[in-house]
Write a structure and sequence with these properties.
By secondary structure, this protein is of the alpha+beta class. Helix content is 42%, strand content 34%. The chain has helices at residues 2-29, 35-43, and strands at residues 46-53, 59-65, 68-74, 79-86.
C-alpha cells in the first residue's frame, strides 16, 4: 500500500506537468500547424490584419476590406469603427 502511494505522489505531478506542457505547446504553435488557413485568408475579400487586446473584454482590430484598412473597437456586445484609411492599390 505504501509503494502505491509513493508511486502516486511521484507520477501525479509528472502527469500534471506533461498535460500543462502539451496545452502550452498547442497554444503556442497552433497557428503554425495550419498552413492551409493562410492560403484561404488570401482569397477572401475581408482580411483580419492585426488584433490587440486592451482589457479583459475589449480588443482593437485592423481589418482590410476592399482596399481599405479599418480600425475597429470590439467589445462583448458592440463593434465600432474608429478610423478608416484607404489602402494603396
Amino acid at each position: 500500500m505504501v509503494v502505491y502511494i509513493i508511486k502516486l505522489l511521484v507520477l501525479l505531478p509528472i502527469m500534471a506537468g506533461l498535460i500543462f506542457a502539451a496545452l502550452w505547446l498547442y497554444r503556442k504553435y497552433q497557428p503554425a500547424l495550419m498552413p492551409g488557413l493562410m492560403k484561404v485568408q488570401h482569397k477572401r475579400s475581408i482580411k483580419m490584419l492585426e488584433t490587440l487586446s486592451v482589457g479583459n473584454f475589449a480588443k482593437l482590430a485592423v481589418v482590410e476590406f476592399d482596399g481599405q484598412k479599418i480600425l475597429l473597437s470590439v467589445t462583448r456586445g458592440r463593434v465600432e469603427r474608429i478610423a478608416a484609411k484607404a489602402g494603396t492599390p
